[in-house]
Each structure stands twice: as C-alpha cells, then as structure tokens.
Amino acid sequence: MLPQDISAAELDSVMKEYGEGLGVSCGYCHVKDPKTQHIDYVSDQNPRKQAARTMIAMLQYINTTYLSRIGDPRYPTLVTCGNCHQGQTHPPDFEQAH
Is residue 78 a part of any domain in this protein? Predict the structure, then answer.
C-alpha cells in the first residue's frame, strides 16, 4: 500500500496519522513476535492489518479518483482515516438532526 522507497521519517509520519485517526497504537494492527516480544511490522498475522490495507486503498481511490477532480481550492485537504473514525477504532454512528 505504501511506496517501496518510503523513507523512515515518512513511514513514521504516515503510521502516526493512522494511529491518531483511529486512536490506536502500533500493536492494534501489528503483532508481537512471540520470541522477542517486539512488534513485527512485516507480519501479516493480524487481520486488522489487512482491513487497514483495504481502508487505505479506499482512501487512495477516493482522493485520487474523486477529490482530485473537484479542483476547488476550498477542498485542499484529502480524506484521511480521521474523517470517519474520529479517533475511534470503529467510526461512530451518524446521528442525523431531526
């Protein structure tokens, strides 16, 4: 999902953004290595990691396919995890005003 040549600083920034958007730490999507007890960032054993990849693909699609076409300077910010999740692992229910 992320560029192969992403720098460590860029990766840290992206992961921090994801974590803040969902209100989680690294261990939410990444598993600990049972031998070392360190987070194994490469492992795909946590199903949340695959769910995150799906959501990231959705964001990339929305941002590149739709928002990039608007061309309106009032909408310069791309959609992020936080737009829907609002710092929660599951997006809060939308409550429509009556």
Answer: yes
Domain around 43:
24-85
pLDDT tier at 93, thresholds 50, 70, 90: very high
Inter-residue contact 20 to 87 (CB < 8 Å)? yes
Q: Is 36 helix (H, G, I), strand (E, B) or coil?
A: coil
Tens digits of per-residue pLDDT, 29-46?
Answer: 999 999 999 999 999 999
Which two three-digit tokens encode residue 79?
């959609």
Residue 29 resides in a domain = yes
Residue 59 belongs to some domain of the structure: yes
The dihedral through the CA atoms of 28, 61, 90, 16 has a sign that is: positive
The number of folded domains in the chain is 1
Q: Is the dihedral of CA 27, 90, 83, 50 positive or negative?
A: positive
pTM here is 0.82
d(CA 15, CA 13): 6
Residues 4-18 have a mean pLDDT of 95
pLDDT at 73: 73
